[in-house]
Every structure is written in structure tokens, then in C-alpha cells.
Amino acid sequence: VQISNTILEITSARPDVERPDLTRPDWVNGLERPTDALWLDKNENLDPILAEWNRKLVSELDPRSIGTYPECAPLYRKLGESLDLHPRHLLLTPGSDGAIRAVFEAFISPGDRVIHTVPTFAMYSVYSKMYGAQVTPLEYEPSEQGPSLSVDRFLEKIKSTKPKLVCLANPDSPTGTVFNSAELRKIIEAAGQAKALILVDEAYHPFYEPSVVQWVSQYPHLVVARTFAKAWGLAGLRIGYAVASASVAPLLHKVRSMYEVNTLAVDILSRALDHPDQMLASVKRLNDGKAFFLKEMEQKKLRVLQGHGNFLHVAFGKSAERVFKALDGHVLFRKDFSEPCLKGFSRFSSTTQEIFKPVVSKVLESL
Ligand SMILES: Cc1ncc(COP(=O)(O)O)c(C=O)c1O
């Protein structure tokens, strides 16, 4: 297909959009995951019991939810109630990715400094380029216990670089690491002293339960990103939210699309929120499955990382090529990492013990 380049001869995109290092996955030749393999590569929640529950929610859709524009106000009120926060603190977004983008869109101008961890969720780097930010990377270092980043190094970086925005996923991905509440308070306060906004990304809540969501009433510069993609098993609906202070939330709303999320998502979410027990039971099944997988690997003296997300890491060492071959075509997972802090580790998304069992058998047979 011949695509005309004429438009580029008469005008140009924003300089940051034209920069050659801003690249995105191909939208035509994107990878299609084989339907008969087990998908443990993207940290989704494929728990069959939760999937069946969500399928029931879908089957009870109001038929108008397909043909009409969304009315979000009741969902804002319901979500606010479930979080024990006034709905004025909330912005519904297409996944937590949408919440992250809204923060960049509202706050980052070309040349602003952004601190984010490395490695972390890929879109922090993408949005930094897209909005022209100067990035100060904060790298996890390898250690016996896995990726390591001290709170003191974090505080020092905030103090010395005076950023406009600090981004921290807690738990972080792909490292699975967390800062505890006392450490987070120090990081949030250091950001405040530097007059920076801080975005705490809680995509993996409540696989990791502690949260700073309630702190938005206390810290005007704090934004929290959350999602229904992981624990709630609704990645395909593309719905999440930002929680922000009363001064920041209205600014995030200024940059929202005409309709911030779609009607199907609003309809399903409104009913899913009545049954957090379904989600919590699934989180338990996945955490139990993860504990099972890790125990089996540890018994074989393999190095593992427990982490706090819905995923785990295991280093197959000298058996790696044999294990990869045994799982090839059966299980999709992340085989290795280029970053030194995770070098040699493979990553699997958590699933139930029942689903993990044949995977574990295949691994054990090939060691
Ligand atoms: C740390 C982190 N934040 C955000 C996201 C984006 O999730 P969502 O599907 O809600 O956009 C991910 C997805 O893997 C993630 O790992």
C-alpha cells in the first residue's frame, strides 16, 4: 500500500512527536497470541472462576449500553463510596495507563524534569518523550534479594534534580518491588518539598494491599493511579482511575476526552463494584497459585523472587534452554530481561494452582 507523505512536506507534528526515539509497536503486524497457549506473559488475571463471574456481568448488560453515550456520574459516586472518598477526587480513565497519560497531559511541558524508576511500566518513558520531559532515571540495582533501590537514593535524587513529576509504581513492574508506607511517606514529602507532583501507580492493588489512596486529602501534590485490569480481571474493558487532591483532580478533568470511558465499561463496573468479594477471592486464588509455583521451584534450589504484583520470577540457570523448549507452544511468559537487576530471571503472571500444576510438571521434568 502506498501511503502519501505529502502532509509532511507542508507541515510537521509537534517536535516531540517527530523525535525518532519515540517509537510504538506496529499496529498492523502486531503479535497475535496463539489461542491454545496459556497466556502468562502480560500480568492479566485469567482466573476461570472470576472470568465466569465477569461473563455473567456481561450477559446482564443493559442493551442501551451498546448504543448510547456513557453517563458516568453514578459510577463516580459509587466508586467514591467504595473508596470512602468524595467523587470529586476521581477521574475515570481508560486503564491506569489513561490516568498516567492524564497526569502528563495536564502537567508536563517540554523541558520539565521527570523522575521514574528503571525498569518500570513502559509508558512512563513513552509519555516522557511524548510530552518532551527530561528524564532522570532511577535504576534498580542487582542484589541477592533481587532488584534493589534504597529510599535514601530516591530521596537524594528528588532533592538534587528538582523534578516537576516523580513517578513510582508500588508495586513496581517488572521488579515486583515495593516501598513500605513509612518509606512512601518520606518520598511523597520529599516530592512536596521539591514542589513536584508525585504519581503513585497502584495497578497491582490489592495483590499488594497497603495503599496511599487516602493520603490525597493530606497531600495536594499526590496522584494515585488504579486499574480494574489486574485484580478485577477486566483488562479488556480498559477502565481505571486517578485519585487526586481537590486541587489537582479538576485539572485532570480539564484534559479528559469528551467521554472519558465507554458505556460498556461503566455498565459492567457499576455492577462489579457491588461484589468486591469476587475480586478478593480471585486475588487469593492467584496468590495461592503463586506461592505453590514458588515453593516447587525453591525445592529444586532455583532462585526465585516473590515480589508483590500478580507475577513471579524464577531463574532457571543452566536448565533455562531446556525449560524454554519444554514450555514452548504451551505457555507464554517473559523469558529474560536485559536490565542487570533482573538478568537471568523469567517472569510468569500469577494464575491458579490448578492451572500452574501442568506448567510446574513440565518445568520439573526438564530440569
Ligand atoms: C505498573 C503498571 N502500571 C500501569 C499498567 C497499565 O495497566 P492498565 O491496563 O490499567 O492500563 C501496568 C500494566 O501492566 C503496570 O504494570
What topology emerges from the helices and strands here?
Blueprint: H1 6-10, H2 15-18, E1 38-39, H3 48-59, H4 64-67, H5 73-83, E2 90-93, H6 95-107, E3 113-118, H7 123-130, E4 134-139, H8 151-161, E5 165-169, H9 181-193, E6 197-201, E7 222-227, E8 240-244, H10 249-254, H11 263-272, H12 276-299, E9 303-305, E10 311-315, H13 320-327, E11 331-332, E12 346-349, H14 353-366
Parallel strand pairs: 1-11, 3-4, 3-5, 5-6, 6-7
Antiparallel strand pairs: 2-8, 7-8, 9-10, 10-12
Helix pairs in contact: 6-7, 8-9, 12-14, 13-14
The protein binds pyridoxal-5'-phosphate (PLP).
Notes on the protein architecture:
With 367 residues, the chain is an alpha/beta fold. Helix content is 39%, strand content 14%. The protein has helices at 6-10, 15-18, 48-59, 64-67, 73-83, 95-107, 123-130, 151-161, 181-193, 249-254, 263-272, 276-299, 320-327, 353-366; strands spanning 38-39, 90-93, 113-118, 134-139, 165-169, 197-201, 222-227, 240-244, 303-305, 311-315, 331-332, 346-349. The strands form 3 sheets. The chain has a 7-stranded mixed beta sheet with strand order 2-8-7-6-5-3-4, sandwiched between helices. A 3-stranded antiparallel beta sheet has the order 9-10-12, covered by helices on one side. Helix 7 links the parallel strand 3 and strand 4 (134-139). Helix 6 runs parallel beside helix 7, helix 12 runs parallel beside helix 14 (353-366) and helix 13 (320-327) packs across helix 14. The longest helix has 24 residues, at 276-299. It is globular. The chain starts with 5 loop residues before the first helix and ends with a helix. Pyridoxal-5'-phosphate binds at residues 43, 95-97, 121, 169, 173, 201, 203, 227, 229, 235, 240.
